[in-house]
TrEMBL record:
GO molecular function, one term: ATP binding
Record's protein name: ABC-2 type transport system ATP-binding protein
Keywords associated with the record: Antibiotic resistance, ATP-binding, Nucleotide-binding, Transport
Lineage: Bacteria, Bacillati, Actinomycetota, Actinomycetes, Streptosporangiales
Compartmental location: Cell membrane
Protein source organism: Nonomuraea solani
BP terms from Gene Ontology: response to antibiotic
GO-annotated cellular components: plasma membrane
UniProt keyword Nucleotide-binding, yes or no: yes
Entry keyword Transmembrane helix: no
Topology class, membrane: Peripheral membrane protein
Amino acid sequence: MGSAGAPVIEVSGLTKRYSDVVAVHDVDLSVRAGQIYALLGLNGAGCWPSTTPTAWTRTGAAT
């Protein structure tokens, strides 16, 4: 677990496309140890909450 105040999840400029459709555009997110976040789509559901974590876990090695 990260130290107090240190980000345990940090994403900058995340964009996910499906062919010509941009599903997620230029997302910046920083979650610190102990914080709770919820990801909601435009209607309270949708692909945004599943697309974003999937995209950030496939962008490369953790730093």
